[in-house]
Amino acid sequence: MFDNLSEKLDKALHVLKGHGQITEINVAETLKEVRRALLDADVNFKIAKSFTNTVKEKALGQNVLTNLQPGQLMVKIVKDELTQLMGGDAEEINLTGSPSVILMSGLQGSGKTTFSGKLANYLKNKKSKKPLLVACDVYRPAAIDQLHVVGEQIGVEVYSDRENKNPVSIAEAGIKHAKAVGANVVIIDTAGRLAVDEVMMDEIANIHKVIKPQETLFVVDSMTGQDAVNTAKAFNDILNFDGVILTKLDGDTRGGAAISIKSVVDKPIKFIGTGEKMEAIDVFYPSRMADRILG
Ligand code: GDP
């Protein structure tokens, strides 16, 4: 996807560079191509349209038509706008609170459990934290097993209680356990469903209300395109989450999700998942992502 979009943008901007004389018509044509490239990358239509309008205004405002290197200036404007659209600066997660409680939300299969492990590993190794993972999926015993496997891999304790079918009380007991063992970050992995449904939403809303996490993260599979945006909106309406985790960016992903989600829910993307291994986690830098998209 990225090569594709970057190639297309490159072509679009090349048209502009190739013209001896830059006219408003060339700029308009180029922007049309840019818009098409964004749509192909699964960026929402309205967002793509408003993006190109902003770029056009900036281009005219910065006198791109009379600039000595109009192509380069256009590329810079497009890149800067793309960076802004994805949030501008990188955003940290909130680690205040003792312990700091991080609640993971998202659909089943989005990569929540994997990411919970990656985040615990990251906080342990890069931020010298002592994390505790808490398994709150009371429906799928396999999910609890999976978190234990992950915990063992990275040397992080996992709290679970297979007899308890109440996720709120498991989360509370997990936090209590963290205090007892001196863990300073608690990562709560919750149950997901295959699609947004009321029971799941009520459950996560309940956990959220009772434990009042410092940080609520929404995990989404970047391969799901426009669906990712709709899911993000549904979760944000209920949880007013603090940040987004985009997983599976290593695959043939539709990078449009990164752009659209930020625009629709106006919450920062904080981390990306780039593989199945515990080390495949990166802080999300909007400018790096823009570079990757533009090539
Ligand atoms: P959950 O149901 O939300 O807890 O999702 P899981 O953590 O079980 O992940 C579902 C599948 O996606 C698993 O096979 C993971 O190995 C895989 N997965 C998770 N994150 C990534 C990622 O960043 N890249 C790739 N390629 N696979 C991932």
TrEMBL record:
Coiled coil: none annotated. Its main location: cytoplasm. Its EC number is 3.6.5.4. It catalyses: GTP + H2O = GDP + phosphate + H(+). Keywords: Cytoplasm, GTP-binding, Hydrolase, Nucleotide-binding, Ribonucleoprotein, RNA-binding, Signal recognition particle. It is found in: Cytoplasm. Residues 268-281 form the SRP54-type proteins GTP-binding domain. GTP binds at residues 106-113, 189-193, 247-250. Involved in targeting and insertion of nascent membrane proteins into the cytoplasmic membrane. Binds to the hydrophobic signal sequence of the ribosome-nascent chain (RNC) as it emerges from the ribosomes. The SRP-RNC complex is then targeted to the cytoplasmic membrane where it interacts with the SRP receptor FtsY. Part of the signal recognition particle protein translocation system, which is composed of SRP and FtsY. Composed of three domains: the N-terminal N domain, which is responsible for interactions with the ribosome, the central G domain, which binds GTP, and the C-terminal M domain, which binds the RNA and the signal sequence of the RNC. Belongs to the GTP-binding SRP family. SRP54 subfamily. This is Signal recognition particle protein. The lineage of its organism: Bacteria, Pseudomonadati, Bacteroidota, Flavobacteriia, Flavobacteriales.
